Amino acid sequence: MSILIRSFLFYLYLISITMIAGLFCILFTAFTSAQQRYILFRYWSGLNLLMLDKICNIQCRVLGMKHVIECGPKPMILLSKHQSAWETLVYPYLFPKTLCFVSKRELLWLPFFGWALASLKMITINRGDSDAARAAVAVQGRERLALGQWIAIFPEGTRTPVGSYRPYRKGGFRLAIATNTDIIPVAQNAGNVWPRNSFRKYPGLVTVSIGPVISVKGKTEEQIQTEVEGWIEGEMHRIDPAAYSLRTN
Q: Which residues, in sequence order, are bridge partners of residue 248?
């Protein structure tokens, strides 16, 4: 079966399952908590991972899960490399924590998926208004952390091409300092199998590497940013040397 046909079949599945999950979230919003609806979100995410394997022959391996387990019930801020739509579909299943994603508000306008996202009370920001975006992350982030949730942020701000580097935005580091919340860094190379803005999904193995906790205690914003960027970008060279060996910065 060709890559094009496999990709079409996966999208057919994804649209169907998202419509069903979205309708359930909307219909039961009045009778369930956001935490209960998140359980459905995790099932949806797990099905996505399974169907990516069955339809597109895309597998996944996770390194460093012990760092997540060692955190126990303590809330954390997860800062991850962002190359693809893959991570947004499967992270809720991969991480055994309640993740609160920081995402652009335009996602709320998507039928079914956006409705479900709104019911889960994620942090949505207007990327065109940087002041309002910073305020939303600061205020809502503090509230979600107080509930024991993990804040998931893609600090590059948008999906980046494989092998490239985009300076990290400071919102995640500022939130970490303001709330005295430590950081879990994540590197992953999903862009090799699901390139950004691409319809085609290519067979292959996605490696998700979870780093050790980065403490924020007694550190400046610049020090934390240097440490987080250094670990993630360095790990990208290790898990995807073919793509990153030619990078000069």
A: none
> What's the whole-number mean pLDDT along residues 109-133?
78
Question: pTM for this one?
Answer: 0.90
Q: CB of 51 within 8 A of CB of 78?
A: no
Q: What's the rounded Cα separation, in Å, for the pair 234 and 6? A: 33
Using CA atoms, how far apart are residues 165 and 30, in angstroms rounded to an integer? 43
249 part of a folded domain: no
Residue 33: its pLDDT value, please?
84
Average pLDDT over residues 83-106: 91
- Full domain range(s) for residue 144: 3-244
Structural domain total, the chain: 1
Kindly tell me if the per-residue pLDDT of 246 is higher than 70. no
Within a domain: 149 = yes
Sign, CA dihedral 77-79-85-89, equals negative
Distance CA 5, CA 184 (A): 37
Name the pLDDT band for 90 (thresholds 50, 70, 90). very high
CATH code, domain with 177: 3.40.1130
The residue whose two tokens read 């590497």 is 209
